[in-house]
Design a protein that fits this description.
Blueprint: H1 16-49, H2 51-57, H3 59-105, H4 120-145
């Protein structure tokens, strides 16, 4: 039997000065890589927050986003207006239903149909009647006050 195993090599420890130099070199290398990474991240952050640069780089994206926003707000506006129209129709239907129920329950309380709407002839006659009434009122007032009527010349 021999002393020790023939296949195992003896590990040689480096001297402390060499080990320190090696660690310093490795640390310096890591610092350099970290500095490069940090400066690249800083440059990317500045580019990302520069909206003018982003608009120049991605104009299609801006148009697409604007179109999506327009469709979104248009859809919301349409939804609100259609629900209002629908609720108006529902309210009218309920009101009509209530009126029909009252008419069936108490037909004696149903209002008489309205007379036909006045036409042009009725409006002309009304204006003539108003003019005559004003003229008669003026004459009566002049007689009451006992002032002679003024003649227009």
């Amino acid at each position: 039997m021999g002393e020790g195993t023939p296949r195992v090599m003896k590990v040689v420890e480096p001297k402390p000065a060499e080990q320190a130099r090696s660690l310093e070199t490795e640390i310096e290398h890591l610092r350099t890589r970290l500095d490069r990474s940090l400066s690249e991240l800083d440059r990317r952050r500045h580019d990302l927050l520069d909206y003018k640069l982003q608009l120049r780089r991605h104009p299609q994206l801006l148009l697409i986003a604007g179109g999506v926003m327009l469709l979104l707000f248009g859809g919301v506006a349409y939804s609100v207006s259609s629900s209002r129209r629908q609720s108006l129709a529902v309210r009218r239907a309920r009101k009509y239903k209530g009126a029909m129920r009252r008419a069936v329950d108490h037909p004696e309380n149903v209002a008489r149909p309205r007379a036909r709407e006045s036409g042009v002839a009725a409006k002309i006659l009304a204006s003539i009647g108003t003019t005559v009434a004003v003229a008669l009122t003026r004459k009566l007032l002049e007689r009451t006050v006992n002032t002679p009527p003024q003649v227009n010349q």
